[in-house]
Design a protein that fits this description.
about 40% helix; formyl-coa transferase, domain 3; 2 domains; alpha/beta; Rossmann fold; about 400 residues
């Protein structure tokens, strides 16, 4: 069968992670995605392993490869009026304009969404912003660290009681926003199939932060108070906690329905007598005596390694997980069996693994293993396909090469 988005052209006027991640997902679904970059390439393209503090000979940006795989690359110096006119022609050939440019900047390039829709009612315009493209902070620059992580309450909520603030890892909020953008674009395409009209889509990183933390955020909205932070020394449920093992590694127990698992758990850790201990008779008693139980379990888990405990607990079908490093997680057998880490064959770098799209379809393969395009590799072809004259193409290609 044809790919779900076969025949759809997406123009991606965006940098860094969130909007490009949405573009990559649309490409996985069969759309043609044209990425516009400055002639010298966006900074994310040039973020190598050594710049991230990893001492290996890997000269590409692995995250850039993930969020830009399978796209075409168009380089334009938008300081030139000819480049702006050419970009408008490419926009006119597209079904979707995907951007994270601030409204004031995109308006300077003659791409105001309302004007575009008035001229091309079938166009879909998808905008990614920090705080909403139409709100009071529409032109406030943001990353997911600020809008999604710090201002949404996640940064404060996710530290343990009395602990230091946690530092978000790159792209966490961005990838969540990218999935929301892709879903909205696919929905808008479906609507356009029915009535012929496009629309404007907005996804804000701050809103994604509220949505991702919805379990806590809804309590704050309903009660006016922040939910209590986790305190591993006195948790509400000691079977929903992490414990250090003899090798310094940790096991994370996640038995939310604690009463259901209590007798099996104490048998698995070789302390069946705890099942008869009145201090721990039920969930409420365990909460009242949580500090005592955590100290007891800390001593128990110190007697074996993480691997030994995981084997022992999983043998009793208890819900738990090893606390792994990313390097360890990359060797997960289940992930490998499901094709989550496909191999990319890059013309310069050779073979390396990446992360596949976050869902699969039984009638459409989405390996996610195409390399990202070389910078400017498709400039001439895209401009020609969009009706730009040969003289202007030559000028713009020469300007990109010079920059």
């Amino acid at each position: 069968m044809a790919a779900p988005l076969h025949g759809i052209r997406v123009l991606e006027l965006a940098s860094f992670v969130a909007a490009p991640a949405a573009g990559a997902l649309l490409g996985d679904l069969g759309a043609e995605v044209i990425k516009v970059e400055v002639p010298w390439g966006e900074i994310y393209r040039h973020s190598t392993a050594r710049m991230m503090g990893v001492d290996v000979d890997f000269d590409l940006s692995a995250p850039f490869q993930m969020t830009n795989h399978g796209k075409r690359s168009l380089t334009l110096d938008l300081a030139l009026p000819q480049a702006q006119a050419a970009l408008r022609k490419v926009v006119d050939s597209a079904d979707v304009l995907l951007t994270n440019m601030l409204p004031e900047r995109i308006a300077r390039y003659g791409l105001d969404p309302k004007t575009l829709l008035a001229e091309r009612p079938e166009l879909i315009i998808a905008r990614l912003s920090g705080y909403g493209a139409d709100g009071p902070e529409a032109n406030t620059p943001a990353f997911d660290y600020t809008a999604y992580w710090a201002r949404s309450g996640l940064m404060e909520q996710l530290r343990e009681e009395g602990g230091a603030l946690s530092f978000q890892r790159p792209g966490i909020g961005d990838h969540s926003a990218g999935m929301a953008l892709a879903l909205a674009i696919v929905s808008a395409l479906r609507t356009r199939d029915q009535d012929g009209h496009g629309q404007i889509i907005d996804v804000a990183l701050q809103h994604i932060g509220y949505y991702i933390s919805g379990n806590d955020m809804t309590w704050a909205l309903a009660t006016g108070q922040s939910p209590p932070k986790h305190d591993r020394s006195h948790p509400r449920n000691p079977l929903w906690n992490h414990y250090a093992c003899s090798d310094g590694r940790s096991v994370f127990l996640v038995m939310i329905e604690a009463d259901r698992y209590w007798k099996t758990f104490v048998g698995a850790i070789e302390h069946p007598e705890l099942a008869e201990d009145p201090r721990f008779a039920d969930a409420f008693a365990r909460y009242q005596n949580a500090q005592e139980l955590v100290v007891l379990l800390d001593n128990v888990f110190q007697k074996k390694t993480m691997a030994q405990w995981i084997q022992q607990l999983e043998g009793h079908r208890l819900i738990c997980a090893p606390v792994r490093t990313h390097a360890e997680a990359a060797e997960d057998e289940t992930a490998a069996a499901r094709g989550i880490f496909p191999e990319v064959k890059h013309p310069q770098q050779g073979s390396f693994r990446t992360v596949a799209p976050p869902f699969s379809m039984s009638r459409h393969a989405m390996p996610g293993n195409a390399p990202a395009p070389a910078l400017g590799a498709d400039t001439e072809a895209v401009l020609r396909e969009s009706g730009v004259d040969e003289e202007t193409i030559a000028l713009l290609v020469a300007a990109s090469a010079r920059d």
